Amino acid sequence: MVSDPNSRLNTLTQSEEEMMRSGSVRFLVLLLGMAILMFVGLSPASAADPIKLRYSNFFPATHVQSQLAEAWCKEVEKRTNGKVKIEYYPGQTLTKANVVYDGVVSGISDLGLSVLGYTRGRFPLMEVVDLPLGYKSGVQATKVANAVYEKFKDKALTDTQVMYLHAHGPGLLHTKGKAVEKLEDLQGLKIRSHGTSQKVVKALGGTPVAMPMPESYQALEKGVVDGAVYPLESNKGWKLGEVIDFVTMDFPAAYTTTFFVTMNKDKWNSLPEDVKKTIQEINQEWSPKHGQAWDEIDKEGLQFLKEKNKKIIELPPEEAKRWGEAVKPVLVEFVEEMKQKNLPGQEALDTAQQAFKDADK
């Protein structure tokens, strides 16, 4: 039997068509797969996964300094175009005030704001800023803090990346139950203080009781202490004006407290260079914002006391001079302590006093 050539041709043609269709499908699947891989690799969503940071701050969320810190977080997010997202933890909700710095070092938080003086002795040269230089404003104190840091770059701070420093306005004496109008009135009174301010209290004749700010309200309310030293703003910002009766305006003996904002060093080093640059630019803007805010809220704190009918004690010139003289040994002691540690204490003091004068112009 002779086969039909047309039939064979038809069969071959159908087979070839099926093979071609099968090959085309496989080819299309391969192309689609490659396209998907390329899309995923170049996808804006994948490339723009944000860098997430955690920021710990001991100030309560309602405090102006906390609000400024949170505004810093939002500014970083904004100016990095969302490359960085910061989870903000105010009011000791992530780490307690006295361990914020260690929390940053260990990575519990990536960023932290607290007080250098809560770990007294750890940042020796920076303690010069907190000395009773007779501060008049937060702007002045903030300039001194940054001037000292820029000159000496305290080695104790090198285990983190410092964002910026700021410092509160004049630290003054507040008491409960007893007015302090002269140095003799302070004898034997237990005064809440911390860091260098403990030495100030002792030099003035009081008994210093070490205590971080978040514990002060309850201590004053329950009579654990007879008073506290702190800036005027805390009367409203920490509501301490509710539990004290008097403030002594002892400006010649006024100290300050240095606050740090710092980042975990490994986390900082892992950031892209453009992000680092942006954050550093924001830091330069935010440090003076904090100093100005301290002065504004000092005014509010004083007004709060007046509204609560608390007594504001102004020292006569001669008595004020006595207070200024009484704290001078604190400065001398600092220089001697630094000398024992082979640190340039006198140079640090000279730097602080010159920055103090320059900022007062």
**Given this structure, which CATH class of the largest domain is correct?**
Alpha Beta
CATH superfamily of the largest domain: Bacterial extracellular solute-binding protein, family 7
Provide mean pLDDT, rounded.
Answer: 90
Give the name of the CATH architecture of the largest domain.
3-Layer(aba) Sandwich
Number of domains: 2
Largest sheet: 6 strands, mixed
Strand residue content: 15-25%
Shape: globular
Provide the fold topology:
Blueprint: H1 5-42, H2 44-47, E1 51-57, H3 64-79, E2 84-89, H4 100-106, E3 111-115, H5 138-152, E4 160-167, E5 171-175, E6 190-193, H6 196-204, E7 207-210, H7 216-221, E8 227-231, H8 234-237, E9 246-249, E10 258-264, H9 265-270, H10 273-307, E11 311-314, H11 317-326, H12 328-340, H13 345-359
Parallel strand pairs: 1-2, 1-3, 6-7, 6-8, 9-11
Antiparallel strand pairs: 3-10, 4-10, 5-8, 5-9
Helix pairs in contact: 3-10, 5-10, 5-13
